[in-house]
Design goal:
By secondary structure, the chain is α/β, with parallel strands linked by helices. It contains ten helices and eleven strands. It is globular. The site of NADPH dihydro-nicotinamide-adenine-dinucleotide phosphate has 25 residues, from helix 10. Keywords: Hydrolase, Multifunctional enzyme, NADP, One-carbon metabolism, Oxidoreductase, Photorespiration. Catalyzes the oxidation of 5,10-methylenetetrahydrofolate to 5,10-methenyltetrahydrofolate and then the hydrolysis of 5,10-methenyltetrahydrofolate to 10-formyltetrahydrofolate.
Length: 295
Protein backbone atom coordinates (compact mmCIF):
# COMPACT_ATOMS: atom_id res chain seq x y z
CA UNK A 1 0.00 0.00 0.00
CA UNK A 2 1.01 3.64 -0.40
CA UNK A 3 3.21 4.93 2.39
CA UNK A 4 4.85 8.03 0.94
CA UNK A 5 3.89 11.41 2.27
CA UNK A 6 2.51 13.65 -0.47
CA UNK A 7 4.46 16.90 -0.86
CA UNK A 8 1.67 19.37 -1.52
CA UNK A 9 3.17 21.95 -3.86
CA UNK A 10 -0.17 23.60 -4.40
CA UNK A 11 -0.63 24.31 -0.70
CA UNK A 12 2.96 25.49 -0.22
CA UNK A 13 2.70 27.74 -3.28
CA UNK A 14 -0.51 29.24 -1.89
CA UNK A 15 1.22 29.97 1.42
CA UNK A 16 4.14 31.62 -0.37
CA UNK A 17 1.77 33.73 -2.46
CA UNK A 18 0.02 34.87 0.70
CA UNK A 19 3.40 35.84 2.18
CA UNK A 20 4.22 37.75 -1.02
CA UNK A 21 0.87 39.56 -0.99
CA UNK A 22 1.63 40.88 2.50
CA UNK A 23 5.12 42.02 1.51
CA UNK A 24 3.89 43.70 -1.68
CA UNK A 25 1.35 45.76 0.22
CA UNK A 26 3.85 46.61 2.97
CA UNK A 27 6.21 47.89 0.30
CA UNK A 28 3.49 49.89 -1.41
CA UNK A 29 2.40 51.47 1.86
CA UNK A 30 5.94 52.24 3.08
CA UNK A 31 7.61 53.58 -0.05
CA UNK A 32 4.85 53.77 -2.66
CA UNK A 33 6.48 51.24 -4.96
CA UNK A 34 4.61 48.38 -6.61
CA UNK A 35 6.79 45.53 -7.95
CA UNK A 36 6.45 45.12 -11.72
CA UNK A 37 7.01 42.11 -13.98
CA UNK A 38 7.35 42.46 -17.75
CA UNK A 39 6.72 39.51 -20.05
CA UNK A 40 7.79 39.36 -23.68
CA UNK A 41 5.91 36.85 -25.78
CA UNK A 42 6.99 36.23 -29.36
CA UNK A 43 4.86 34.20 -31.77
CA UNK A 44 1.59 32.39 -31.21
CA UNK A 45 2.40 29.10 -29.54
CA UNK A 46 -0.69 28.16 -27.56
CA UNK A 47 1.24 26.68 -24.64
CA UNK A 48 3.40 29.81 -24.32
CA UNK A 49 0.30 32.03 -24.41
CA UNK A 50 -1.23 29.94 -21.62
CA UNK A 51 1.91 30.19 -19.48
CA UNK A 52 2.02 33.96 -19.97
CA UNK A 53 -1.66 34.32 -19.10
CA UNK A 54 -1.15 32.28 -15.91
CA UNK A 55 1.86 34.36 -14.92
CA UNK A 56 -0.09 37.60 -15.41
CA UNK A 57 -3.00 36.26 -13.38
CA UNK A 58 -0.65 35.20 -10.60
CA UNK A 59 0.92 38.68 -10.55
CA UNK A 60 -2.48 40.32 -10.19
CA UNK A 61 -3.45 37.98 -7.38
CA UNK A 62 -0.52 39.18 -5.22
CA UNK A 63 -0.59 42.85 -6.26
CA UNK A 64 2.41 42.78 -8.62
CA UNK A 65 1.89 44.92 -11.71
CA UNK A 66 2.35 43.08 -14.99
CA UNK A 67 3.46 44.47 -18.33
CA UNK A 68 3.27 42.57 -21.56
CA UNK A 69 4.69 42.89 -25.05
CA UNK A 70 3.44 40.57 -27.75
CA UNK A 71 5.41 40.32 -30.97
CA UNK A 72 4.45 38.34 -34.04
CA UNK A 73 6.21 35.14 -35.07
CA UNK A 74 7.93 36.90 -37.99
CA UNK A 75 9.22 39.90 -36.01
CA UNK A 76 12.96 40.46 -36.01
CA UNK A 77 15.48 39.80 -33.26
CA UNK A 78 16.09 43.57 -33.16
CA UNK A 79 12.47 44.17 -32.22
CA UNK A 80 12.75 41.74 -29.31
CA UNK A 81 16.02 43.34 -28.22
CA UNK A 82 14.34 46.73 -28.35
CA UNK A 83 11.56 45.55 -26.00
CA UNK A 84 14.11 44.06 -23.64
CA UNK A 85 16.09 47.28 -23.54
CA UNK A 86 12.93 49.34 -23.01
CA UNK A 87 12.09 47.25 -19.94
CA UNK A 88 15.72 47.38 -18.74
CA UNK A 89 15.35 51.17 -18.60
CA UNK A 90 11.79 51.28 -17.22
CA UNK A 91 11.84 52.05 -13.46
CA UNK A 92 8.37 50.50 -13.00
CA UNK A 93 9.70 47.12 -14.16
CA UNK A 94 11.71 45.01 -11.69
CA UNK A 95 11.60 41.69 -13.49
CA UNK A 96 11.86 40.81 -17.18
CA UNK A 97 10.88 37.48 -18.58
CA UNK A 98 11.31 36.40 -22.19
CA UNK A 99 8.95 33.49 -22.75
CA UNK A 100 10.84 30.56 -24.32
CA UNK A 101 11.09 28.99 -26.81
CA UNK A 102 11.71 31.85 -29.23
CA UNK A 103 11.09 31.44 -32.96
CA UNK A 104 13.97 29.55 -34.58
CA UNK A 105 15.27 32.52 -36.58
CA UNK A 106 16.20 34.29 -33.35
CA UNK A 107 19.36 33.84 -31.30
CA UNK A 108 18.10 32.94 -27.84
CA UNK A 109 21.53 33.52 -26.33
CA UNK A 110 21.73 37.06 -27.66
CA UNK A 111 18.33 37.92 -26.25
CA UNK A 112 18.87 36.38 -22.81
CA UNK A 113 22.23 38.17 -22.60
CA UNK A 114 20.45 41.47 -23.15
CA UNK A 115 18.27 41.19 -20.03
CA UNK A 116 19.72 43.32 -17.25
CA UNK A 117 21.05 40.92 -14.61
CA UNK A 118 19.34 43.06 -11.94
CA UNK A 119 15.98 42.20 -13.58
CA UNK A 120 16.71 38.62 -14.64
CA UNK A 121 13.93 37.03 -12.56
CA UNK A 122 14.07 33.83 -14.63
CA UNK A 123 17.72 33.48 -13.61
CA UNK A 124 18.72 32.49 -17.16
CA UNK A 125 21.38 35.16 -17.71
CA UNK A 126 24.77 33.41 -18.04
CA UNK A 127 26.24 35.64 -15.33
CA UNK A 128 23.59 34.50 -12.87
CA UNK A 129 24.08 30.84 -13.86
CA UNK A 130 27.86 31.26 -13.64
CA UNK A 131 27.62 32.70 -10.16
CA UNK A 132 25.31 29.86 -9.16
CA UNK A 133 28.03 27.42 -10.22
CA UNK A 134 30.88 29.16 -8.38
CA UNK A 135 31.81 28.82 -4.76
CA UNK A 136 31.71 32.07 -2.83
CA UNK A 137 29.58 33.85 -5.44
CA UNK A 138 25.92 34.70 -5.19
CA UNK A 139 23.57 34.83 -8.17
CA UNK A 140 21.06 37.68 -8.08
CA UNK A 141 18.36 35.21 -9.15
CA UNK A 142 17.98 31.44 -9.30
CA UNK A 143 15.81 29.78 -12.01
CA UNK A 144 12.26 29.38 -10.73
CA UNK A 145 11.55 25.67 -11.25
CA UNK A 146 14.67 24.29 -9.53
CA UNK A 147 14.34 26.95 -6.83
CA UNK A 148 10.79 25.71 -6.26
CA UNK A 149 12.06 22.13 -5.90
CA UNK A 150 14.54 23.14 -3.19
CA UNK A 151 11.95 25.33 -1.46
CA UNK A 152 9.64 22.29 -1.20
CA UNK A 153 12.43 20.27 0.44
CA UNK A 154 13.05 23.13 2.89
CA UNK A 155 9.41 23.65 3.77
CA UNK A 156 9.03 19.92 4.45
CA UNK A 157 12.17 19.92 6.61
CA UNK A 158 13.91 17.40 4.39
CA UNK A 159 17.63 17.49 5.06
CA UNK A 160 19.81 17.93 1.96
CA UNK A 161 23.25 18.32 3.53
CA UNK A 162 25.37 15.19 3.20
CA UNK A 163 22.67 13.34 1.25
CA UNK A 164 23.09 11.51 -2.06
CA UNK A 165 21.03 13.39 -4.63
CA UNK A 166 20.36 12.37 -8.21
CA UNK A 167 19.06 14.77 -10.83
CA UNK A 168 17.61 13.24 -13.97
CA UNK A 169 17.92 15.70 -16.88
CA UNK A 170 20.52 18.41 -17.52
CA UNK A 171 18.58 21.18 -19.29
CA UNK A 172 19.66 24.78 -18.78
CA UNK A 173 16.33 25.68 -17.23
CA UNK A 174 15.76 22.79 -14.81
CA UNK A 175 18.21 19.89 -14.53
CA UNK A 176 21.51 21.75 -14.55
CA UNK A 177 20.54 24.50 -12.09
CA UNK A 178 18.79 21.91 -9.86
CA UNK A 179 22.07 19.98 -9.62
CA UNK A 180 24.01 23.18 -8.84
CA UNK A 181 21.52 24.15 -6.14
CA UNK A 182 21.66 20.71 -4.49
CA UNK A 183 25.44 20.91 -4.50
CA UNK A 184 25.32 24.36 -2.90
CA UNK A 185 23.17 22.77 -0.19
CA UNK A 186 25.96 20.24 0.43
CA UNK A 187 24.40 17.21 -1.22
CA UNK A 188 26.59 14.84 -3.22
CA UNK A 189 25.09 15.07 -6.67
CA UNK A 190 24.94 12.76 -9.68
CA UNK A 191 23.36 13.78 -12.97
CA UNK A 192 21.63 11.37 -15.32
CA UNK A 193 20.98 12.23 -18.98
CA UNK A 194 20.02 10.51 -22.20
CA UNK A 195 23.45 8.88 -22.62
CA UNK A 196 23.67 7.51 -19.09
CA UNK A 197 24.00 3.74 -18.95
CA UNK A 198 21.94 1.84 -16.37
CA UNK A 199 20.35 4.91 -14.79
CA UNK A 200 18.44 2.72 -12.34
CA UNK A 201 21.71 1.72 -10.66
CA UNK A 202 22.42 5.37 -9.96
CA UNK A 203 18.91 6.34 -8.84
CA UNK A 204 18.88 3.41 -6.39
CA UNK A 205 21.64 5.14 -4.43
CA UNK A 206 19.72 8.40 -4.11
CA UNK A 207 18.26 9.80 -0.91
CA UNK A 208 16.74 12.58 -3.02
CA UNK A 209 15.71 12.36 -6.69
CA UNK A 210 14.80 15.40 -8.76
CA UNK A 211 13.51 14.32 -12.14
CA UNK A 212 13.18 16.69 -15.12
CA UNK A 213 13.14 14.50 -18.19
CA UNK A 214 9.85 14.66 -20.05
CA UNK A 215 9.32 10.90 -20.37
CA UNK A 216 6.08 9.71 -18.75
CA UNK A 217 6.51 7.16 -15.94
CA UNK A 218 10.17 6.53 -16.77
CA UNK A 219 11.28 6.01 -13.18
CA UNK A 220 9.80 2.78 -11.84
CA UNK A 221 9.38 1.75 -8.22
CA UNK A 222 12.37 -0.59 -8.55
CA UNK A 223 14.63 2.41 -9.39
CA UNK A 224 13.98 3.96 -5.98
CA UNK A 225 15.74 3.34 -2.68
CA UNK A 226 13.26 2.72 0.14
CA UNK A 227 12.66 5.98 2.01
CA UNK A 228 13.93 8.26 -0.76
CA UNK A 229 12.36 11.66 -1.39
CA UNK A 230 11.09 12.26 -4.92
CA UNK A 231 10.60 15.62 -6.62
CA UNK A 232 8.96 15.09 -10.00
CA UNK A 233 9.29 18.09 -12.34
CA UNK A 234 8.02 16.29 -15.43
CA UNK A 235 4.73 17.39 -16.94
CA UNK A 236 3.82 14.90 -19.63
CA UNK A 237 0.51 14.51 -21.46
CA UNK A 238 -0.61 10.91 -21.94
CA UNK A 239 -3.69 9.78 -23.85
CA UNK A 240 -6.68 9.07 -21.67
CA UNK A 241 -10.02 8.61 -23.38
CA UNK A 242 -11.86 9.08 -20.08
CA UNK A 243 -10.29 12.51 -19.42
CA UNK A 244 -12.24 15.60 -20.53
CA UNK A 245 -9.61 16.68 -23.08
CA UNK A 246 -8.64 13.17 -24.14
CA UNK A 247 -5.36 13.35 -22.23
CA UNK A 248 -4.09 13.74 -18.70
CA UNK A 249 -0.80 14.91 -17.23
CA UNK A 250 1.67 12.58 -15.54
CA UNK A 251 5.21 13.02 -14.26
CA UNK A 252 8.48 11.27 -15.06
CA UNK A 253 8.00 9.06 -12.03
CA UNK A 254 5.61 6.12 -11.97
CA UNK A 255 3.60 7.61 -9.12
CA UNK A 256 1.68 4.55 -7.91
CA UNK A 257 4.83 2.44 -7.71
CA UNK A 258 6.92 5.22 -6.18
CA UNK A 259 4.36 5.83 -3.44
CA UNK A 260 5.03 2.33 -2.10
CA UNK A 261 8.79 2.86 -1.82
CA UNK A 262 9.50 6.56 -1.30
CA UNK A 263 9.09 8.41 2.00
CA UNK A 264 7.78 11.56 0.29
CA UNK A 265 6.80 12.50 -3.27
CA UNK A 266 5.39 15.40 -5.26
CA UNK A 267 2.25 14.66 -7.29
CA UNK A 268 1.75 15.74 -10.92
CA UNK A 269 -0.10 18.04 -11.22
CA UNK A 270 -0.03 19.90 -7.90
CA UNK A 271 3.63 19.44 -7.03
CA UNK A 272 6.41 21.45 -8.63
CA UNK A 273 4.20 23.23 -11.20
CA UNK A 274 2.52 25.70 -8.81
CA UNK A 275 5.88 26.35 -7.11
CA UNK A 276 7.43 27.60 -10.34
CA UNK A 277 5.05 30.55 -10.58
CA UNK A 278 5.31 31.24 -6.85
CA UNK A 279 9.11 31.49 -7.23
CA UNK A 280 8.72 33.87 -10.16
CA UNK A 281 6.60 36.16 -7.98
CA UNK A 282 9.10 35.80 -5.16
CA UNK A 283 12.01 36.70 -7.47
CA UNK A 284 10.12 39.76 -8.71
CA UNK A 285 9.45 40.94 -5.16
CA UNK A 286 13.10 40.36 -4.20
CA UNK A 287 14.20 42.35 -7.22
CA UNK A 288 11.95 45.32 -6.42
CA UNK A 289 13.17 45.29 -2.80
CA UNK A 290 16.79 45.21 -3.92
CA UNK A 291 16.40 47.95 -6.53
CA UNK A 292 14.63 50.22 -4.02
CA UNK A 293 16.80 49.16 -1.10
CA UNK A 294 13.72 48.16 0.90
CA UNK A 295 13.98 45.56 3.68
P1 LIG B 1 14.54 19.17 -21.88
O1 LIG B 1 13.93 18.38 -22.99
O2 LIG B 1 15.20 20.47 -22.15
O3 LIG B 1 15.59 18.25 -21.10
C1 LIG B 1 15.34 16.92 -20.82
C2 LIG B 1 16.54 16.29 -20.19
O4 LIG B 1 16.23 14.92 -19.93
C3 LIG B 1 17.78 16.29 -21.08
O5 LIG B 1 18.90 16.63 -20.32
C4 LIG B 1 17.87 14.87 -21.63
O6 LIG B 1 19.17 14.40 -21.82
C5 LIG B 1 17.25 14.10 -20.50
N1 LIG B 1 16.63 12.86 -21.00
C6 LIG B 1 15.78 12.70 -22.03
N2 LIG B 1 15.42 11.43 -22.17
C7 LIG B 1 16.07 10.74 -21.22
C8 LIG B 1 16.13 9.38 -20.85
N3 LIG B 1 15.42 8.45 -21.50
N4 LIG B 1 16.91 9.03 -19.81
C9 LIG B 1 17.61 9.96 -19.13
N5 LIG B 1 17.58 11.27 -19.42
C10 LIG B 1 16.84 11.65 -20.46
O7 LIG B 1 13.36 19.34 -20.84
P2 LIG B 1 13.13 20.40 -19.63
O8 LIG B 1 14.25 20.31 -18.66
O9 LIG B 1 12.76 21.70 -20.18
O10 LIG B 1 11.82 19.78 -18.98
C11 LIG B 1 11.79 18.47 -18.45
C12 LIG B 1 10.38 18.12 -17.99
O11 LIG B 1 9.98 19.05 -16.99
C13 LIG B 1 9.30 18.23 -19.06
O12 LIG B 1 8.32 17.23 -18.82
C14 LIG B 1 8.70 19.60 -18.86
O13 LIG B 1 7.36 19.66 -19.29
C15 LIG B 1 8.79 19.72 -17.36
N6 LIG B 1 8.89 21.10 -16.88
C16 LIG B 1 8.11 21.44 -15.81
C17 LIG B 1 8.17 22.70 -15.27
C18 LIG B 1 7.34 23.00 -14.08
O14 LIG B 1 7.06 24.14 -13.79
N7 LIG B 1 6.93 22.00 -13.30
C19 LIG B 1 9.02 23.74 -15.82
C20 LIG B 1 9.88 23.27 -16.91
C21 LIG B 1 9.78 21.99 -17.41
P3 LIG B 1 20.22 15.04 -22.90
O15 LIG B 1 20.74 16.29 -22.24
O16 LIG B 1 21.24 13.99 -23.06
O17 LIG B 1 19.41 15.32 -24.13
Amino acid sequence: EATAKVIDGKAVAKKIRDEITIEVSRMKESIGVVPGLAVILVGDRKDSATYVRNKKKACESVGIKSFEVRLSEDSSEEEVLKSVSGFNDDPCVHGILVQLPLPSHMDEQNILNAVSIEKDVDGFHPLNIGRLAMRGREPLFVPCTPKGCIELLHRYNIEIKGKRAVVIGRSNIVGMPAALLLQREDATVSIIHSRTKNPEEITREADIIISAVGVPNMVRGSWIKPGAVIIDVGINPVEDASAPRGYRLVGDICYEEACKVASAITPVPGGVGPMTIAMLLSNTLTSAKRIHNFQ
